[in-house]
C-alpha cells in the first residue's frame, strides 16, 4: 500500500514532533506544530465544504503558511496548484479559469 505525503507527515510528527520542519524569514515550526496546524485548518475547511472535488490555488511564495496550506489541502483531499505571488492578476485569472478553481489562498 502506497502512503501519501500526508501519511508521512503524520508519522514523522508523531515520532519526531520537536524536530524542525519548516523555516522562513519570519518564523519556524517543528513537525508537531506543523501537524497540529494542518489538522486545525483542515477541520475548518471541511466545515466550509471543501473536499476531494475542490480545486485550490496557493497564490503565495514559499513560507511557513504555504507549507501549512499545502499539507492542509492534501489532508482533506483537494487538488492543489501553486502560483507565485509575483504572477500578474491576469495570470491568476487565467489559471483560475483553466482549473475551475474553487478557492485562491494567499498570504
Tell me what the structure shows:
By secondary structure, the protein is an alpha/beta fold. It is built from four helices and five strands. The chain has helices spanning 5-15, 31-47, 64-75, 89-99, and strands spanning 20-23, 28-30, 55-59, 79-83, 103-105. The strands form two sheets. The chain has a three-stranded parallel sheet with strand order 4-3-5, sandwiched between helices. It has a two-stranded antiparallel ribbon with strand order 1-2. Strand 1 (20-23) and strand 2 form a beta hairpin. Helix 1 (5-15) crosses helix 2 and helix 2 crosses helix 3 (64-75).
Which descriptors apply to this entry?
alpha/beta; 4 helices; 19% strand
* Major sheet details: 3 strands, parallel
Seen as an oligomer or otherwise, the chain set is single chain
What's the mean pLDDT score? 94
Number of strands: 5
Helix-strand makeup class: alpha/beta
Give the SSE order as H and E letters.
HEEHEHEHE
In the sheet with the most strands, the strands line up as: 4-3-5
What is the strand and helix layout of this fold?
Layout: H1 5-15, E1 20-23, E2 28-30, H2 31-47, E3 55-59, H3 64-75, E4 79-83, H4 89-99, E5 103-105
Parallel strand pairs: 3-4, 3-5
Antiparallel strand pairs: 1-2
Question: In a nutshell, what does this entry contain?
Answer:
This protein is an alpha/beta fold and 107 residues long. It has helices spanning 5-15, 31-47, 64-75, 89-99; strands spanning 20-23, 28-30, 55-59, 79-83, 103-105.
Amino acid at each position: 500500500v502506497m502512503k501519501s505525503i500526508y501519511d508521512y507527515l503524520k508519522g514523522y510528527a508523531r515520532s519526531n514532533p520537536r524536530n524542525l520542519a519548516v523555516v522562513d524569514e519570519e518564523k519556524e515550526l517543528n513537525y508537531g506544530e506543523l501537524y497540529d496546524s494542518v489538522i486545525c485548518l483542515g477541520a475548518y475547511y471541511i466545515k466550509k465544504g471543501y473536499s476531494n472535488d475542490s480545486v485550490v490555488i496557493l497564490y503565495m511564495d514559499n513560507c511557513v503558511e504555504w507549507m501549512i496550506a499545502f499539507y492542509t489541502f492534501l489532508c482533506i483531499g483537494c487538488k492543489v496548484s501553486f502560483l507565485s505571488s509575483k504572477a500578474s492578476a491576469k495570470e491568476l485569472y487565467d489559471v483560475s479559469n483553466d482549473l475551475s478553481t474553487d478557492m485562491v489562498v494567499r498570504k
